[in-house]
From TrEMBL:
<dbReference type="InterPro" id="IPR001279">
    <property type="entry name" value="Metallo-B-lactamas"/>
</dbReference>
<dbReference type="Pfam" id="PF00753">
    <property type="entry name" value="Lactamase_B"/>
</dbReference>
<dbReference type="InterPro" id="IPR050662">
    <property type="entry name" value="Sec-metab_biosynth-thioest"/>
</dbReference>
<feature type="domain" description="Metallo-beta-lactamase">
    <location>
        <begin position="6"/>
        <end position="217"/>
    </location>
</feature>
<protein>
    <submittedName>
        <fullName>MBL fold metallo-hydrolase</fullName>
    </submittedName>
</protein>
């Protein structure tokens, strides 16, 4: 559905066993790959004593809690993601994403989303609460290493990155990805200003030393600073394009999204499938809400749809 091909999971060896940064997705193929990868370093899942999970998305969190039930590993997760787990575990049957898609003015996309996703009930066993909630910036001891746990809301409200400053490493999760920008505004419990949060978190990590970037997707690269600068420039450009679209008379996030290029191939919104059309609409809404917060445009509620106009 989302085109995901791989998730990077990092193993830190300690005298007490392995600490894994992220756990992967609880799928048969993912578990097979994890078992084979651990075997290549002479380890098994029984050696995993701890998971430091960057955020509560299924491709990072669900395999960690599944393995915890099997071998008793300790799982840590950012406190800001508790609201997301509460929604997923609530079992109400309602999909909070639908309301956000409609708020973006994308009624047809919402209908397609409901048809595609209707009836899917999350398995609560994959969304159990962690053993420890990470709250605010602090340091963790991982074997002989001191790891800085840094709160980086944006992709999700509870996202954390983990920095080993002595070794010059940044375990960046989805906060800083080497070739794409993470989705903004797509989580069960929505933030008021997800893009503002994300840019603030980028500034926080940019203020740290330049570190080797170990992302959750894609290749390891040499410089966190270089990629953060590229991400900030990307969103500056998107904000400018969104503002120009509103000034040209577009009034909803969905209409603005239709003026923007999508993916590295610069596709039109009409070329995207339902899942990615929904993400595009919600991410555009996040950009527009930040422009409104900055006073560049106005945002009003028009019958459950956010309506935008030049200030």
């Amino acid at each position: 559905m989302d085109g995901l091909r791989a998730v990077n999971v990092y193993a830190i060896e300690t005298e007490d066993g392995l600490t894994l940064v992220d756990g992967g997705w609880a799928l048969d193929a993912s578990r097979k790959q994890l078992d084979e990868s651990l075997a290549s370093i002479g380890r098994t899942v029984s050696d995993i004593t701890r998971f430091l999970v960057t955020h509560a998305h299924r491709d990072h969190y669900t395999q960690a809690v599944t393995i915890r039930r099997e071998v008793g590993s300790h799982v840590s997760l950012g406190l800001g993601d508790r609201g997301n787990l509460d929604v997923v575990r609530g079992g109400s049957g309602s999909d909070p994403t639908l309301a956000q898609i409609r708020r973006a003015g994308a009624a047809e996309v919402a209908a397609g989303w409901q048809e595609a996703m209707g009836g899917q009930v999350p398995d609560p066993s994959m969304w159990e609460y962690p053993d420890t909630w990470l709250d605010g910036d602090h340091q963790l001891t991982v074997g002989t290493r001191t790891i800085d746990a840094v709160s980086t809301p944006g992709h999700t409200q509870g996202h954390f990155v983990f920095a080993d400053l002595a070794a010059g490493l940044l375990f960046a999760g989805d906060h800083v990805l080497p070739t794409i920008t993470p989705s903004i505004g797509f989580e069960p419990a929505y933030a008021d200003q997800p893009l503002g949060d994300f840019l603030g978190s980028l500034a926080k990590v940019r203020a740290m030393p330049d570190l080797r970037l170990l992302p959750a997707h894609g290749d390891v690269t040499a410089s966190s600073h270089t990629r953060i600068d590229e991400l900030v420039a990307h969103h500056d450009e998107r904000l400018a394009l969104c503002l120009a679209s509103v000034l040209a008379g577009r009034t909803t996030a969905y209409a603005v999204a239709g003026d923007l290029p999508w993916t590295r191939h610069e596709r039109h919104l009409d070329e995207l499938d339902v899942f990615n059309s929904a993400l595009a609409s919600m991410e555009t809404m996040a950009h527009l809400e930040l422009l409104a917060a900055r006073g560049s445009i106005t945002s009003t509620d028009d019958g459950g749809v956010n309506a935008y106009a030049p200030r």
